[in-house]
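Quick note —
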Amino acid sequence: MIKYLLVLISLISSFSINAEGISLNCSSVETQCLNCGENKTIFPLNEFSKDTGSLDVTADESEILNSGAYHFNGDVELKSDVHILSADDIKVLSADESALASGNVKFQDKDFLISSNELQFNKDLNGISVDASNAYFQDISVGTLGANGSGSRIIKTPNNIIIENATYTLCPVSNSNWVVEASTIKLDLDKNRGNAKNAKIEFYGIPILYLPRYSWVLKGRGSGFLTPSYQTFNDSTTKKGAYTLKVPYYFDIAPDRDLLIAATYLKYRGFKYEGKYRQLFGRKIDDEGENVDSIIKIDARYMSNDSISKINRWFLESSLVLDITDKFNFSSNYNRVSDKKYIKEIARGTKAELNSQFKLSYQDKTNALLLQALREFRQVLDGCETACQDKYTRNYELLLDKTFTWEEENRAINTVLKNTKFTSTKPNKVSGTRTYLNIGFTKDHLILEGDDIYPAIPLISSKLNFSSTHYNLNNSKNITRNIGGAGLDLLLPFKNRGSFLNAEISHILIPKISYKYRGTKAQSSIPLFDTTDSYVDIMTFSDLTADERYTGLDRISNANDVTYSIESGTRFIDSEKTDPDLLNFKLAQTYYTDDYAVSNITNNDYEIRRKYSNIASSIAVALDNFTFSNNTTIEPDNFSIVSKSNSFSYRVNSRKFITLEYSHSRVTNDDKKRTIKMYGALPLTDSIHIFGGRDKITSTNALNTETSGIVYESCCWAFRLAHIKKAASNDYNYSTVAEIILKGLGSTAASLNERIETNIPGYVAELN
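Predicted structure written out below.
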């Protein structure tokens, strides 16, 4: 019984609000229609008079009835700078600036059109009002996509529009797939609300809903019910098929704040209640001229007495980004759940832990100064007790980063001081405080001047650095590590111009030799707080040309290396700087003079290596709607491929594209990891398109995510069906969602938009 009751509530609420995507902006978001063809108005628009305060009159015949009364007939047109009134016959009283028009009447102002058989025109201190009988109307304040309809009588004042025996739709003129019929409709322009009495909604001429009272938003966001979402899935505890039905209500509190509440029924478990609050404040303009807002978000969910676990369950997620001043910024993320199994059983997610942090920053870009204080928290969830206990949490971190620059001499000194305290939940595990100091000097000795396509390029660059790291450890001896290093880069760029496909192109070729030296220190006694090895999987061009092999600070690699690299780029001369190259090629290899390298394996100081690295190459092609890229790691002894990744995409728009990605890497000589990803959308007709995505590790036959769906989009309504399969701890989570949207009256669920767009990169789920 509960299921059928919620379905009825779902049907009623799906026509209550226009808040597509629930975008929080300081300006309203207008609805748009797709696949509408040529949008029309109920009659052709005319230009207003350019003379302010004057009234232009044209007519076949005119006469003076008496003092201040005039009669015009035959193609009459009264035109001012704010309105146009035309008809077969118009009588004008100049004393009160009123007029009575009859026969083929057409009224036009900047926001509204009315056509009728008879219309009374009045003007007073409050503005212009009209009273028309047997009339048609159209809202043109948003162009030809505004509402239109008819009524036995239409009364328009500066603040309200009243329509008797009315029809109302946001479909284009003469293409009303759905329509609201009502005894009376009032459009309150000040409150941005439409109100209907005895409303009946017809879909393709079939009545689907009757409401004694019905209200909706005329433009942009507004309070009201959002389209509910219905999903089916397998319950992780009962292993039975279940469903959820979510009915959300949206509060448009102000242009810069809103609140979304929802009631969700979960089969076998009961009701869950949700609330999401957002607020913008402290708007400022960044260096690029874009608006930047501070924002607070709070997402709370509560389930009283879960029918299976017999406990109260909750989830809290909040974030805050606050610009205290132009230089001071505070940000935080706080995530917490009532129990370790909440994400798996209620949210049906795969997170193994929840991370929270608080960060206070002072950044002075003019003086290249950054001060930062940070603290982290972690909550370990179901399925990650052992793995997550091996991780460390930054109890606090303090950072000072200052750069001194002498632009006229092309040199700079950078100083970094970082103090971090690491803690662990695992008993007797080594933890402690790490203090890191690094001083680096860089200088460009020769520079190739930039042009309108490429920036300036240094031909010779040198660098020196010294770092000192002190570990104050619990359950172990304190450690101090001092390491110095130096480097030299030599570049010989070549630029030339030519033509391709009857267009001018520019080509740049940059051969580069880099020498890098860094002292050797045994570091196996230092715990691994936050360090990982970037050489583990596919070794890329950027890995070989980077200054450091390891991320984090617990390992600093030794170096006495020479790296040869070459980069080539070709692009159209008139292309934007952010556009990809038509053809880009990169190649790099490093030669080592040391036979060993600092290792990040526990209790192992060094690892043996060859005199040279693998060869890393990449190639990328971008032409019109096609893009192709390849990253390959080559074993130089026999020129065999150790690992590679390929991607190909053809993209016309977010409804017509395909992306293919394939990668494989050699984990061991006998073990290879292969991954394939496929995403795309394909229009079947002008109104129907399908979308899909698949992310799978083919070497183990493990599926990460699989998404598929079909969408029908007409001028003013849409239907969407989506099926999502996602890997869980022991099985898969399945969700099937169906939605019908009357554009301008209903709205899709924003959470579903995010899920589809996350699973299918490049696809835009919003139906506007």
